[in-house]
Structures are given as structure tokens and as C-alpha cells.
Design goal:
295 residues; mainly beta; four-stranded mixed sheet; 41% strand; six-stranded antiparallel sheet
Length: 295
């Protein structure tokens, strides 16, 4: 589920779809380095192009007009119809639907995360195109919940602190596969603002029930981007047992939820009167994808 697109730079500095690379092969190497091989027709050496990598489209409920892009063939047919169109026109079409996930949650073993990356502009050479590296950005944010820095803790009577349920409310049902914001490569956290489809007004609630989390809950919660507005926020409620008592505490995302960020809610103390939750925002670990010359 990988697509490599070649965009040509026009006189007005826009980028239009020249072709897509065919017969792709993925070779998995050491240290999470992936090599993609493929073919595309030779072009005029005067063209300036850049390559875009898109992954994990067909599992994510993308619908363009009346056409559901639920197979590699359907995506390729869509791309054929978009030859000569701008990259913005294509990215505006690629909207994933969160609510096709299993039981309202994003189970990563069954459904991969859409990702996007772009190379620098390259002047074509008939014999070789050298692309050194393309960084891919995930289309969702990840949320983790830690208990005392993943160490857990016990109550006064040596009763374990246990998270029993996690509820997340007011989650967007849709998101762009490709952000309409421009990533800032000069800083570690590349995107600074959320990118949400204009018509993405439907919301949903997500629940993780029957839990026995004592140290951390990770690699389970994935959220579409969300623009923060007063009165329109995403909330996270943690139901827990501490010292034999069932309680709950609610935290609010008082900022944008941004793709390719990891939001960590760390419960570092429990007060019987006021529970406090702190969180930090991290960049996800980077992996390198090496794309060699195309024929």
C-alpha cells in the first residue's frame, strides 16, 4: 500500500502530477531502512520534479465522489484521472474516515496509519535520479497515558492504582491524509498547526473498557487532528481504582491536536481531594526510508 508520485514544477511554481511510479517493490533492510524500487517513463531532462510518497491509503475509507479507494487498483485509477492536476487538488481529495475503524477504535494491527512525505525538487537526468531521503509524517496523533512515569504506584494501604476505563469525547471522524499545513523542517516538531477538512463536522466518542492498566496505556489511542476552539474541545476521562475507591478525572486538550505528535498524559500523583494530570508533547521516533534511482 505504497504510492510514489512524480510532480512537475510549472512556470507559476505550482506542482502538477506528471506520473506515478509503477511496479513498486519494497525491500526491508536493517535498522528500519526501507528501499523502494520502481519504474516510470523517461521524461524531458529540462523538467524539475519532486517525488511524493503516500502510504496506507486503501484501508482508511477514502471516498472521492462516488468512488471508494479501497484497493490498490482503485487508487491507481484515481491517480490516472488526476494526471496534470495540482498536488493541492489531489491532497484535498484524500480524506480518511476514522469511523471505519473497529468498534470505534484504531487497531494498528488491522489498520495502518496514512503517511506522506516529499523530496526536494530535482532536475531530471535521463540516466539517474538521486534521492537521498524522504521524511514521512503520520496523519494522526498518538495519545499515551502513563502512571508515575510508567512505574505505577500503590495507595496508603498498598492497594494498586489501576486504570479501568478511558473515554475520549468529541473526536473528529475525518482527517486529511496529507496536511494542508507546511511542515517546518528547522525544528524537531515539524507541524505547528492542525489541518482539518472543512466539512469534517461529525464527531464521535471512543471508549476503552475493561482495562487493568497499572503502569501505562500506549500504542492504542490514535486521533485525527483537531483545531482547538473554546466550546469545541476533545476531552479524555480516566476511570480508575485507588485505595479501593472507584473515581474518575477528566483532562481537556486545550490546544490543537496535531499529526505526528505524541501526547503523553502522566499521572504522577493522586490526591484524594484534587487529582492532577500533566502531559508533554513529543515527536514520534523517526525512521529512514531510502529511495534509490528510478529507471
Amino acid at each position: 500500500d505504497i504510492f510514489v508520485l512524480a510532480f512537475e514544477q510549472e512556470v507559476d511554481q505550482t506542482w502538477t502530477l506528471l506520473d506515478y511510479v509503477k511496479d513498486l517493490q519494497l525491500v526491508v533492510g536493517n535498522d528500519n531502512i526501507y528501499t523502494i524500487k520502481g519504474n516510470m517513463p523517461q521524461q524531458s531532462a529540462s523538467k524539475t520534479i519532486r517525488f511524493v510518497v503516500l502510504t496506507n491509503l486503501v484501508q482508511n475509507g477514502i471516498v472521492v465522489g462516488e468512488n471508494a479507494l479501497t484497493s490498490k487498483e482503485s487508487v491507481e485509477n484515481y491517480l490516472k484521472g488526476m494526471l496534470g492536476e495540482t498536488d493541492s487538488a489531489i491532497y484535498d481529495d484524500l480524506i480518511y474516515n476514522y469511523d471505519v475503524a473497529n468498534d470505534g477504535t484504531w487497531i494498528i494491527e488491522d489498520r495502518r496509519i496514512p503517511m506522506w512525505g516529499v523530496s526536494a525538487g530535482t532536475t531530471l537526468n535521463r540516466s539517474k535520479i538521486d534521492i537521498s531521503e524522504i521524511s514521512l509524517y503520520r496523519a494522526v496523533a498518538k495519545v499515551q497515558i502513563w502512571v508515575n512515569g510508567k512505574q505505577g504506584f500503590k495507595g496508603p494501604d498498598k492497594v494498586d492504582f489501576t486504570i479501568n476505563q478511558i473515554d475520549i469525547k468529541n473526536v473528529n471522524k475525518q482527517g486529511y491524509c496529507v496536511s494542508r499545513e507546511v511542515p517546518d523542517e528547522s525544528i524537531n516538531v515539524q507541524y505547528q498547526n492542525a489541518s482539518v477538512p472543512v466539512n469534517a463536522t461529525s464527531r464521535q466518542d471512543i471508549s476503552f473498557e475493561d482495562l487493568e492498566v497499572k503502569q501505562y496505556f500506549s500504542d492504542q489511542i490514535y486521533l485525527p487532528e483537531h483545531k482547538y476552539q473554546v466550546g469545541d474541545v476533545v476531552t479524555l476521562t480516566i476511570h480508575y481504582t485507588y485505595n479501593g475507591q472507584r473515581k474518575q478525572v477528566t483532562a481537556t486538550f486545550n490546544e490543537d491536536i496535531i499529526r505526528n505528535h505524541s501526547y503523553i498524559f502522566n499521572i504522577n500523583k493522586v490526591n484524594e481531594v484534587t487529582e492532577e494530570i500533566y502531559y508533554v508533547v513529543d515527536e514520534w521516533d523517526q525512521e529512514t526510508i531510502n529511495i534509490p534511482s528510478f529507471k
